[in-house]
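Office hours follow-up: a student asked to see two folded examples consecutively, so here they are.
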Amino acid sequence: MGKIIELDTTDGQHLSAYLAEPSGPSKGGIVVVQEIFGVNAHIRIVADRYAQAGYTAIAPAVFDSAEKGVELGYDQAGMQKGLDLVSKIGFDKALASVQAAAKAVAGAGKVGVVGYCWGGSIAYLSAIRLNLPAVSYYGGRNVQLVDEKATAPLLFHYGLKDAHITEADREAVRAANPTAEFYVYDADHGFNCDARGSFDAPSAKLAMERSLAFFARHLG
Protein backbone atom coordinates (compact mmCIF):
# COMPACT_ATOMS: atom_id res chain seq x y z
CA MET A 1 0.00 0.00 0.00
CA GLY A 2 2.82 2.42 0.86
CA LYS A 3 5.82 4.01 -0.80
CA ILE A 4 9.05 5.67 0.27
CA ILE A 5 9.36 9.44 -0.08
CA GLU A 6 12.07 11.92 0.90
CA LEU A 7 11.81 14.72 3.46
CA ASP A 8 13.95 17.72 4.38
CA THR A 9 13.72 19.14 7.87
CA THR A 10 14.10 22.76 8.95
CA ASP A 11 17.33 21.86 10.80
CA GLY A 12 19.01 20.48 7.70
CA GLN A 13 18.28 16.76 7.95
CA HIS A 14 17.47 14.72 4.87
CA LEU A 15 15.48 11.60 5.62
CA SER A 16 13.17 9.06 4.06
CA ALA A 17 9.61 8.31 5.14
CA TYR A 18 7.08 5.58 4.52
CA LEU A 19 3.85 7.05 3.14
CA ALA A 20 0.59 5.08 3.10
CA GLU A 21 -2.47 6.66 1.51
CA PRO A 22 -6.16 5.72 1.78
CA SER A 23 -8.07 4.38 -1.20
CA GLY A 24 -10.65 7.18 -0.93
CA PRO A 25 -10.79 10.75 0.39
CA SER A 26 -8.49 11.30 3.36
CA LYS A 27 -9.83 12.01 6.83
CA GLY A 28 -6.57 13.76 7.76
CA GLY A 29 -2.89 13.07 8.21
CA ILE A 30 -1.24 10.90 10.86
CA VAL A 31 2.48 10.88 11.59
CA VAL A 32 3.50 7.43 12.88
CA VAL A 33 6.59 7.67 15.08
CA GLN A 34 8.76 4.57 15.31
CA GLU A 35 9.96 2.60 18.29
CA ILE A 36 13.72 2.35 18.86
CA PHE A 37 13.81 -0.28 16.11
CA GLY A 38 13.43 2.05 13.12
CA VAL A 39 10.80 2.14 10.40
CA ASN A 40 10.71 -1.63 10.21
CA ALA A 41 8.01 -3.98 8.90
CA HIS A 42 5.84 -3.49 11.97
CA ILE A 43 5.84 0.31 11.76
CA ARG A 44 5.00 0.12 8.05
CA ILE A 45 2.08 -2.16 8.91
CA VAL A 46 0.89 0.36 11.52
CA ALA A 47 0.94 3.10 8.87
CA ASP A 48 -0.93 0.82 6.46
CA ARG A 49 -3.63 0.21 9.08
CA TYR A 50 -4.21 3.92 9.55
CA ALA A 51 -4.41 4.30 5.77
CA GLN A 52 -6.98 1.50 5.67
CA ALA A 53 -8.94 3.47 8.28
CA GLY A 54 -8.99 6.45 5.89
CA TYR A 55 -5.98 8.54 6.95
CA THR A 56 -2.87 9.58 5.07
CA ALA A 57 -0.20 8.02 7.26
CA ILE A 58 3.51 8.81 7.19
CA ALA A 59 6.32 7.22 9.20
CA PRO A 60 9.52 9.33 9.07
CA ALA A 61 12.81 7.45 9.39
CA VAL A 62 13.90 9.39 12.43
CA PHE A 63 17.25 7.58 12.65
CA ASP A 64 18.31 8.65 9.14
CA SER A 65 20.30 11.63 10.40
CA ALA A 66 22.56 9.19 12.29
CA GLU A 67 22.35 6.11 10.06
CA LYS A 68 20.32 5.46 6.92
CA GLY A 69 17.91 2.60 6.46
CA VAL A 70 17.79 1.31 10.03
CA GLU A 71 15.46 -1.66 10.54
CA LEU A 72 16.16 -3.60 13.71
CA GLY A 73 14.83 -6.81 15.16
CA TYR A 74 13.25 -7.20 18.60
CA ASP A 75 16.25 -8.93 20.15
CA GLN A 76 18.94 -7.75 22.56
CA ALA A 77 21.28 -6.65 19.77
CA GLY A 78 18.51 -4.67 18.10
CA MET A 79 17.52 -3.07 21.37
CA GLN A 80 21.09 -2.03 22.19
CA LYS A 81 21.68 -0.51 18.76
CA GLY A 82 18.33 1.27 18.91
CA LEU A 83 19.16 2.77 22.30
CA ASP A 84 22.53 3.94 20.98
CA LEU A 85 20.84 5.66 18.04
CA VAL A 86 18.24 7.29 20.31
CA SER A 87 21.06 8.81 22.37
CA LYS A 88 22.59 10.26 19.19
CA ILE A 89 19.32 11.66 17.83
CA GLY A 90 17.79 13.26 20.92
CA PHE A 91 14.40 14.95 21.19
CA ASP A 92 15.07 17.98 18.98
CA LYS A 93 16.08 16.11 15.82
CA ALA A 94 13.24 13.65 16.30
CA LEU A 95 10.74 16.48 16.64
CA ALA A 96 12.11 18.14 13.49
CA SER A 97 11.46 14.86 11.67
CA VAL A 98 7.86 14.82 12.89
CA GLN A 99 7.40 18.44 11.83
CA ALA A 100 8.69 17.66 8.31
CA ALA A 101 6.43 14.62 8.05
CA ALA A 102 3.41 16.61 9.25
CA LYS A 103 4.11 19.25 6.60
CA ALA A 104 4.33 16.56 3.92
CA VAL A 105 0.79 15.31 4.67
CA ALA A 106 -0.78 18.66 5.52
CA GLY A 107 -2.74 18.56 2.26
CA ALA A 108 -4.72 15.61 3.65
CA GLY A 109 -6.35 17.81 6.33
CA LYS A 110 -5.66 18.23 10.01
CA VAL A 111 -2.64 16.26 11.23
CA GLY A 112 -2.11 14.19 14.35
CA VAL A 113 0.69 11.99 15.71
CA VAL A 114 0.84 8.48 17.10
CA GLY A 115 4.02 7.01 18.55
CA TYR A 116 5.20 3.82 20.22
CA CYS A 117 7.81 3.28 22.94
CA TRP A 118 10.43 6.02 22.31
CA GLY A 119 8.09 7.32 19.62
CA GLY A 120 5.36 7.53 22.23
CA SER A 121 7.39 10.18 24.00
CA ILE A 122 8.05 11.99 20.70
CA ALA A 123 4.29 11.97 20.11
CA TYR A 124 3.74 13.51 23.56
CA LEU A 125 6.36 16.14 22.77
CA SER A 126 4.55 16.90 19.50
CA ALA A 127 1.44 17.86 21.48
CA ILE A 128 3.61 20.11 23.65
CA ARG A 129 5.77 21.90 21.10
CA LEU A 130 4.04 21.41 17.73
CA ASN A 131 0.41 21.74 18.85
CA LEU A 132 -0.49 18.42 17.19
CA PRO A 133 -3.11 16.06 18.70
CA ALA A 134 -1.17 12.99 19.78
CA VAL A 135 -1.54 9.40 20.93
CA SER A 136 1.32 8.08 23.07
CA TYR A 137 1.77 4.33 23.48
CA TYR A 138 3.91 3.39 26.51
CA GLY A 139 6.38 6.25 26.16
CA GLY A 140 9.22 5.48 28.54
CA ARG A 141 10.54 9.05 28.48
CA ASN A 142 7.15 10.72 29.02
CA VAL A 143 7.97 11.50 32.63
CA GLN A 144 10.87 13.70 31.45
CA LEU A 145 8.33 16.01 29.78
CA VAL A 146 5.83 16.61 32.58
CA ASP A 147 7.14 20.10 33.34
CA GLU A 148 6.10 21.25 29.84
CA LYS A 149 2.44 21.95 29.11
CA ALA A 150 0.71 20.34 26.15
CA THR A 151 -1.15 22.68 23.80
CA ALA A 152 -3.05 19.95 21.93
CA PRO A 153 -5.25 16.99 22.93
CA LEU A 154 -3.51 13.85 24.20
CA LEU A 155 -4.31 10.17 24.64
CA PHE A 156 -2.01 7.87 26.62
CA HIS A 157 -1.87 4.05 26.47
CA TYR A 158 0.13 2.17 29.12
CA GLY A 159 0.60 -1.46 30.13
CA LEU A 160 0.06 -2.38 33.76
CA LYS A 161 2.79 -5.06 33.52
CA ASP A 162 5.32 -2.73 31.87
CA ALA A 163 8.58 -3.14 33.80
CA HIS A 164 10.13 -0.22 31.88
CA ILE A 165 7.69 2.36 33.28
CA THR A 166 6.95 2.63 36.98
CA GLU A 167 3.50 3.34 38.36
CA ALA A 168 4.87 6.55 39.88
CA ASP A 169 6.11 7.76 36.47
CA ARG A 170 2.79 6.83 34.87
CA GLU A 171 0.84 8.71 37.51
CA ALA A 172 3.12 11.75 37.19
CA VAL A 173 2.20 11.93 33.51
CA ARG A 174 -1.48 11.57 34.35
CA ALA A 175 -1.30 14.32 36.96
CA ALA A 176 0.48 16.66 34.53
CA ASN A 177 -2.22 16.13 31.91
CA PRO A 178 -5.57 16.14 33.72
CA THR A 179 -7.62 16.67 30.55
CA ALA A 180 -5.92 13.90 28.56
CA GLU A 181 -7.46 10.52 27.86
CA PHE A 182 -5.53 7.95 29.86
CA TYR A 183 -5.82 4.16 29.63
CA VAL A 184 -3.96 1.34 31.36
CA TYR A 185 -4.18 -2.23 30.04
CA ASP A 186 -3.47 -5.59 31.63
CA ALA A 187 -0.48 -5.95 29.32
CA ASP A 188 3.27 -5.51 29.04
CA HIS A 189 5.47 -2.96 27.28
CA GLY A 190 5.10 -3.21 23.49
CA PHE A 191 1.66 -4.81 23.69
CA ASN A 192 0.65 -3.29 20.34
CA CYS A 193 3.41 -5.02 18.37
CA ASP A 194 2.55 -8.48 17.04
CA ALA A 195 6.24 -9.08 16.27
CA ARG A 196 7.08 -9.07 19.98
CA GLY A 197 6.51 -11.65 22.68
CA SER A 198 4.70 -9.01 24.73
CA PHE A 199 1.98 -8.60 22.09
CA ASP A 200 -1.50 -8.67 23.61
CA ALA A 201 -4.19 -8.86 20.95
CA PRO A 202 -7.21 -7.74 23.03
CA SER A 203 -5.33 -4.73 24.42
CA ALA A 204 -3.97 -3.80 20.99
CA LYS A 205 -7.45 -3.99 19.45
CA LEU A 206 -9.05 -1.86 22.17
CA ALA A 207 -6.22 0.70 22.07
CA MET A 208 -6.55 1.02 18.30
CA GLU A 209 -10.31 1.54 18.59
CA ARG A 210 -9.74 4.28 21.15
CA SER A 211 -6.99 5.85 19.04
CA LEU A 212 -9.21 5.94 15.96
CA ALA A 213 -12.02 7.50 17.98
CA PHE A 214 -9.58 10.11 19.29
CA PHE A 215 -8.41 11.02 15.79
CA ALA A 216 -12.00 11.09 14.52
CA ARG A 217 -12.79 13.70 17.17
CA HIS A 218 -9.71 15.84 16.78
CA LEU A 219 -8.88 15.56 13.07
CA GLY A 220 -12.43 15.33 11.74
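And the second, which I mentioned at the end of office hours:
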Amino acid sequence: MLLARDRYLLRVNVKVCAGCGLIYTGRNLNRAALDSFYRDEYRRFYEDIEGISPAYIHDNRDKLKACYRLARIRERVGTITGVVEIGSGLGFFIRECRQSGIDNVLGFEPCKLSADYAAGQSGLAGKIIDTDYQRYDGKLPQANVYALFHVLEHLPDPGELLRWIGGRIENGWLVIEVPDIAHGWERLGLINFHFGHRHYFSIGSLAQLLQRHGFGVLAFDADIDDGIYPGNLRVFARRLDLTDIKFAALPAEDNREICRKVRGVAKAPWRNGLPRCAARLLRP
Protein backbone atom coordinates (compact mmCIF):
# COMPACT_ATOMS: atom_id res chain seq x y z
CA MET A 1 0.00 0.00 0.00
CA LEU A 2 1.29 3.47 -0.92
CA LEU A 3 -1.04 5.76 1.03
CA ALA A 4 -3.60 4.90 3.71
CA ARG A 5 -5.56 8.14 4.11
CA ASP A 6 -6.57 10.97 1.82
CA ARG A 7 -6.53 14.73 2.36
CA TYR A 8 -9.62 14.53 4.59
CA LEU A 9 -8.12 11.67 6.62
CA LEU A 10 -10.58 9.26 5.04
CA ARG A 11 -9.19 5.76 4.57
CA VAL A 12 -8.61 5.20 0.85
CA ASN A 13 -5.79 2.62 0.68
CA VAL A 14 -4.00 3.84 -2.45
CA LYS A 15 -2.24 0.86 -4.02
CA VAL A 16 -0.27 -0.09 -7.11
CA CYS A 17 -1.20 -2.96 -9.41
CA ALA A 18 1.63 -5.49 -9.47
CA GLY A 19 0.74 -6.46 -13.03
CA CYS A 20 0.35 -3.18 -14.95
CA GLY A 21 1.67 -0.57 -12.49
CA LEU A 22 -1.56 1.43 -12.35
CA ILE A 23 -2.02 3.31 -9.07
CA TYR A 24 -5.57 3.12 -7.76
CA THR A 25 -7.80 3.59 -4.72
CA GLY A 26 -8.40 0.28 -2.98
CA ARG A 27 -11.23 1.43 -0.71
CA ASN A 28 -14.14 3.55 -1.89
CA LEU A 29 -17.90 3.96 -2.12
CA ASN A 30 -19.90 1.43 -4.10
CA ARG A 31 -21.31 2.43 -7.48
CA ALA A 32 -24.76 3.51 -6.23
CA ALA A 33 -23.33 5.61 -3.40
CA LEU A 34 -20.77 7.15 -5.73
CA ASP A 35 -23.47 8.12 -8.26
CA SER A 36 -25.45 9.76 -5.44
CA PHE A 37 -22.36 11.60 -4.20
CA TYR A 38 -21.57 13.13 -7.60
CA ARG A 39 -25.18 14.06 -8.21
CA ASP A 40 -25.92 15.75 -4.89
CA GLU A 41 -22.78 16.34 -2.79
CA TYR A 42 -19.75 16.86 -5.02
CA ARG A 43 -19.46 20.65 -5.05
CA ARG A 44 -20.62 20.99 -1.46
CA PHE A 45 -17.92 18.58 -0.31
CA TYR A 46 -15.00 19.80 -2.44
CA GLU A 47 -15.73 23.50 -2.73
CA ASP A 48 -17.98 24.18 0.27
CA ILE A 49 -20.72 25.83 -1.80
CA GLU A 50 -24.48 25.38 -1.72
CA GLY A 51 -25.22 27.26 -4.94
CA ILE A 52 -23.58 28.82 -7.98
CA SER A 53 -23.38 32.53 -7.19
CA PRO A 54 -22.15 35.40 -9.43
CA ALA A 55 -19.18 35.83 -7.08
CA TYR A 56 -18.27 32.16 -7.47
CA ILE A 57 -18.42 32.41 -11.27
CA HIS A 58 -16.34 35.60 -11.20
CA ASP A 59 -13.57 33.84 -9.27
CA ASN A 60 -13.89 30.56 -11.16
CA ARG A 61 -11.20 29.87 -13.78
CA ASP A 62 -13.21 27.37 -15.83
CA LYS A 63 -14.08 30.02 -18.43
CA LEU A 64 -10.40 30.66 -19.13
CA LYS A 65 -9.65 26.94 -19.12
CA ALA A 66 -12.35 26.41 -21.74
CA CYS A 67 -10.74 28.97 -24.07
CA TYR A 68 -7.31 27.43 -23.61
CA ARG A 69 -8.56 23.88 -24.12
CA LEU A 70 -10.43 24.68 -27.31
CA ALA A 71 -7.36 26.44 -28.73
CA ARG A 72 -5.12 23.45 -27.96
CA ILE A 73 -7.61 21.02 -29.47
CA ARG A 74 -7.92 23.05 -32.65
CA GLU A 75 -4.14 23.06 -33.00
CA ARG A 76 -4.20 19.24 -33.15
CA VAL A 77 -7.54 18.45 -34.75
CA GLY A 78 -8.11 21.30 -37.16
CA THR A 79 -11.77 21.66 -38.07
CA ILE A 80 -14.12 20.56 -35.28
CA THR A 81 -17.48 19.42 -36.62
CA GLY A 82 -19.03 18.60 -33.25
CA VAL A 83 -18.21 17.87 -29.61
CA VAL A 84 -19.50 15.39 -27.04
CA GLU A 85 -18.20 16.14 -23.54
CA ILE A 86 -18.52 13.74 -20.61
CA GLY A 87 -18.43 15.63 -17.30
CA SER A 88 -19.31 19.14 -18.52
CA GLY A 89 -19.19 20.81 -15.11
CA LEU A 90 -20.58 24.34 -15.36
CA GLY A 91 -20.75 24.08 -19.15
CA PHE A 92 -18.07 26.59 -20.08
CA PHE A 93 -16.32 24.36 -22.62
CA ILE A 94 -19.59 23.54 -24.40
CA ARG A 95 -20.47 27.24 -24.35
CA GLU A 96 -17.06 28.18 -25.75
CA CYS A 97 -17.58 25.67 -28.57
CA ARG A 98 -21.02 27.13 -29.38
CA GLN A 99 -19.74 30.69 -29.32
CA SER A 100 -16.91 29.76 -31.68
CA GLY A 101 -19.36 28.41 -34.25
CA ILE A 102 -19.53 24.70 -33.36
CA ASP A 103 -23.27 23.95 -33.33
CA ASN A 104 -23.22 20.16 -32.86
CA VAL A 105 -22.49 19.86 -29.15
CA LEU A 106 -23.76 17.82 -26.23
CA GLY A 107 -22.52 17.57 -22.64
CA PHE A 108 -23.24 15.07 -19.88
CA GLU A 109 -22.94 16.26 -16.27
CA PRO A 110 -23.86 14.06 -13.26
CA CYS A 111 -23.80 16.87 -10.65
CA LYS A 112 -27.29 18.40 -10.59
CA LEU A 113 -26.11 21.75 -9.25
CA SER A 114 -23.60 22.11 -12.10
CA ALA A 115 -25.95 20.79 -14.78
CA ASP A 116 -28.75 23.15 -13.76
CA TYR A 117 -26.43 26.15 -13.94
CA ALA A 118 -24.99 25.04 -17.29
CA ALA A 119 -28.40 24.40 -18.84
CA GLY A 120 -29.48 27.93 -17.85
CA GLN A 121 -26.67 29.60 -19.74
CA SER A 122 -27.57 31.38 -22.96
CA GLY A 123 -27.82 28.93 -25.83
CA LEU A 124 -27.19 25.79 -23.76
CA ALA A 125 -30.76 24.71 -23.03
CA GLY A 126 -30.94 21.06 -24.08
CA LYS A 127 -27.19 20.90 -24.66
CA ILE A 128 -26.20 19.85 -21.12
CA ILE A 129 -27.85 16.60 -20.04
CA ASP A 130 -28.40 15.89 -16.34
CA THR A 131 -28.12 12.13 -16.72
CA ASP A 132 -25.61 9.34 -17.00
CA TYR A 133 -24.28 8.92 -20.55
CA GLN A 134 -25.27 5.25 -20.51
CA ARG A 135 -28.90 6.08 -19.72
CA TYR A 136 -29.20 8.66 -22.50
CA ASP A 137 -31.51 7.41 -25.24
CA GLY A 138 -31.51 10.54 -27.39
CA LYS A 139 -29.55 11.26 -30.52
CA LEU A 140 -25.86 12.09 -30.24
CA PRO A 141 -24.53 14.93 -32.41
CA GLN A 142 -22.25 14.29 -35.35
CA ALA A 143 -19.03 14.91 -33.44
CA ASN A 144 -15.39 14.39 -34.32
CA VAL A 145 -14.22 15.25 -30.77
CA TYR A 146 -15.12 13.43 -27.55
CA ALA A 147 -13.72 15.27 -24.52
CA LEU A 148 -13.06 14.16 -20.92
CA PHE A 149 -11.50 16.86 -18.75
CA HIS A 150 -10.51 15.44 -15.34
CA VAL A 151 -13.20 12.79 -15.46
CA LEU A 152 -11.46 9.48 -16.10
CA GLU A 153 -9.65 9.45 -12.75
CA HIS A 154 -13.01 9.64 -10.92
CA LEU A 155 -14.60 6.59 -12.52
CA PRO A 156 -14.72 3.19 -10.82
CA ASP A 157 -14.44 1.54 -14.25
CA PRO A 158 -12.87 3.92 -16.80
CA GLY A 159 -12.81 1.15 -19.37
CA GLU A 160 -16.61 1.15 -19.37
CA LEU A 161 -16.68 4.73 -20.65
CA LEU A 162 -13.90 4.08 -23.18
CA ARG A 163 -15.87 1.15 -24.60
CA TRP A 164 -18.95 3.37 -24.90
CA ILE A 165 -16.98 6.04 -26.75
CA GLY A 166 -15.20 3.50 -28.94
CA GLY A 167 -18.53 2.33 -30.32
CA ARG A 168 -19.52 5.87 -31.34
CA ILE A 169 -16.45 7.93 -32.16
CA GLU A 170 -15.74 6.38 -35.59
CA ASN A 171 -12.73 8.28 -37.01
CA GLY A 172 -12.84 11.15 -34.50
CA TRP A 173 -10.53 12.27 -31.70
CA LEU A 174 -10.66 11.42 -28.01
CA VAL A 175 -9.22 14.22 -25.85
CA ILE A 176 -8.50 13.37 -22.22
CA GLU A 177 -7.07 15.40 -19.36
CA VAL A 178 -6.00 13.80 -16.08
CA PRO A 179 -3.60 14.74 -13.28
CA ASP A 180 -0.24 13.18 -14.11
CA ILE A 181 0.96 11.10 -11.15
CA ALA A 182 4.46 11.06 -12.62
CA HIS A 183 5.00 14.73 -13.27
CA GLY A 184 4.32 18.05 -11.56
CA TRP A 185 1.50 16.99 -9.24
CA GLU A 186 3.83 16.73 -6.22
CA ARG A 187 3.50 20.50 -5.79
CA LEU A 188 -0.02 19.69 -4.56
CA GLY A 189 1.09 16.90 -2.26
CA LEU A 190 -1.75 15.34 -0.33
CA ILE A 191 -4.30 17.70 -1.96
CA ASN A 192 -4.21 15.46 -5.04
CA PHE A 193 -5.32 12.41 -3.06
CA HIS A 194 -8.98 12.10 -2.16
CA PHE A 195 -11.56 9.38 -2.38
CA GLY A 196 -13.10 10.96 -5.48
CA HIS A 197 -9.96 9.96 -7.38
CA ARG A 198 -10.25 6.27 -8.14
CA HIS A 199 -7.17 6.06 -10.39
CA TYR A 200 -3.87 7.95 -10.64
CA PHE A 201 -2.57 7.96 -14.20
CA SER A 202 0.76 8.58 -15.85
CA ILE A 203 1.17 8.76 -19.63
CA GLY A 204 2.31 5.14 -19.56
CA SER A 205 -0.56 3.72 -17.54
CA LEU A 206 -3.14 5.84 -19.40
CA ALA A 207 -1.76 4.70 -22.76
CA GLN A 208 -2.00 1.07 -21.62
CA LEU A 209 -5.62 1.57 -20.58
CA LEU A 210 -6.47 3.21 -23.89
CA GLN A 211 -4.77 0.45 -25.86
CA ARG A 212 -6.75 -2.23 -24.04
CA HIS A 213 -9.90 -0.52 -25.26
CA GLY A 214 -8.90 0.06 -28.87
CA PHE A 215 -7.28 3.51 -28.73
CA GLY A 216 -3.74 4.70 -29.42
CA VAL A 217 -2.09 7.91 -28.20
CA LEU A 218 -1.46 10.21 -31.14
CA ALA A 219 -0.01 13.11 -29.14
CA PHE A 220 0.18 14.35 -25.57
CA ASP A 221 1.01 17.51 -23.65
CA ALA A 222 2.47 17.43 -20.14
CA ASP A 223 1.67 20.99 -19.11
CA ILE A 224 3.05 22.19 -15.80
CA ASP A 225 2.09 25.87 -15.85
CA ASP A 226 -0.82 26.12 -18.28
CA GLY A 227 -3.28 27.29 -15.64
CA ILE A 228 -5.32 24.09 -15.82
CA TYR A 229 -3.79 21.97 -13.04
CA PRO A 230 -0.26 21.43 -11.74
CA GLY A 231 0.99 18.43 -13.67
CA ASN A 232 -1.96 18.43 -16.08
CA LEU A 233 -1.67 15.69 -18.71
CA ARG A 234 -3.57 16.14 -21.99
CA VAL A 235 -3.80 13.17 -24.36
CA PHE A 236 -5.06 13.05 -27.94
CA ALA A 237 -6.08 9.53 -28.93
CA ARG A 238 -7.69 7.82 -31.90
CA ARG A 239 -8.97 4.37 -32.64
CA LEU A 240 -6.24 1.82 -33.33
CA ASP A 241 -8.09 0.38 -36.31
CA LEU A 242 -7.76 3.61 -38.32
CA THR A 243 -5.23 3.21 -41.11
CA ASP A 244 -2.29 5.49 -41.97
CA ILE A 245 -1.97 6.94 -38.47
CA LYS A 246 1.39 7.09 -36.73
CA PHE A 247 0.93 6.88 -32.99
CA ALA A 248 3.24 8.68 -30.57
CA ALA A 249 6.32 7.13 -28.97
CA LEU A 250 5.85 7.28 -25.21
CA PRO A 251 8.55 8.32 -22.74
CA ALA A 252 10.19 5.77 -20.47
CA GLU A 253 8.83 5.74 -16.92
CA ASP A 254 10.19 4.49 -13.64
CA ASN A 255 7.15 3.28 -11.74
CA ARG A 256 9.27 2.61 -8.66
CA GLU A 257 10.16 6.30 -8.50
CA ILE A 258 6.50 7.27 -8.86
CA CYS A 259 5.58 4.97 -5.98
CA ARG A 260 8.44 6.37 -3.89
CA LYS A 261 7.03 9.89 -4.29
CA VAL A 262 3.55 8.77 -3.23
CA ARG A 263 4.98 7.09 -0.14
CA GLY A 264 6.80 10.34 0.59
CA VAL A 265 3.47 12.15 0.71
CA ALA A 266 2.24 9.61 3.23
CA LYS A 267 5.27 10.18 5.46
CA ALA A 268 4.86 13.96 5.70
CA PRO A 269 1.18 14.92 5.24
CA TRP A 270 1.49 17.98 7.50
CA ARG A 271 4.11 19.45 5.18
CA ASN A 272 2.47 18.70 1.85
CA GLY A 273 -1.24 19.37 1.91
CA LEU A 274 -3.09 18.54 5.11
CA PRO A 275 -3.03 22.09 6.58
CA ARG A 276 -4.76 23.34 3.41
CA CYS A 277 -7.71 21.09 4.25
CA ALA A 278 -7.88 21.93 7.97
CA ALA A 279 -10.92 24.20 7.59
CA ARG A 280 -12.84 21.41 5.87
CA LEU A 281 -11.83 18.92 8.54
CA LEU A 282 -13.07 21.21 11.33
CA ARG A 283 -16.32 22.17 9.62
CA PRO A 284 -19.42 20.70 11.32
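Two things to take away from it. The chain has a mean pLDDT of 87. The two ends are 31 Å apart (CA to CA).
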